[in-house]
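With this grant's support, we have settled on a layout for protein records. A representative record follows, to show the layout.
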Amino acid sequence: MAYTTVPTQNTSDSWSAANHNTYIKNNMAHFAMLSQELKLTDAIPQLSDVTVAPIDVVESSGAAPNPSWYRLNLDADGDEGRQWNFILHRQYESDPVLKVHYYMAGANTTDDIILACRIAAISDGDASVTAKVFDAVNSATVTVPDNAGTEDVTSITLTNNDSMAAGDRVMLLLYRDADAGGDTAAGDCIVTGVELQFTA
């Protein structure tokens, strides 16, 4: 949520409920937006249903010394992904959104990828641990940049989040749903960063 600049008030101005909601309530929500990085190096292999996406290191082709980064390579020919297992931030309240930083390995023109995310959350005292299942899928159809190597940040709204709460142990699966009909982009989707954004 974007910050809304508060206008200068005159002594004769009244302060309405609408003003309160616009300038105080919404701005408090803006400042309370937090994120939790999910490091690529912490991703674990998914053991079933989704092919394990490779993680490697690549460096810029620019002049030395060359910047380098980890990358998660999501293929166009099958469902590939990785899973994270982490403790959800203690300030988490609601409105989870997964932010995915990526670029495409090849050029595309008005093509889409489909990114999908599933969540399973385990709370203190949860008796279903050994038979835990993921909540329903969350997905986003993303129109990719036309040019290869152009960084983009997209969002997956995590409506289906297994009622996760602060302090829960969370399993989060991110994958490219490449065999879906709407995934038309050629070449790998190169994920460079993942973060869980939420309201505190």
Summary: The chain has two domains: 1-31, 34-199. Helices lie at 17-31.
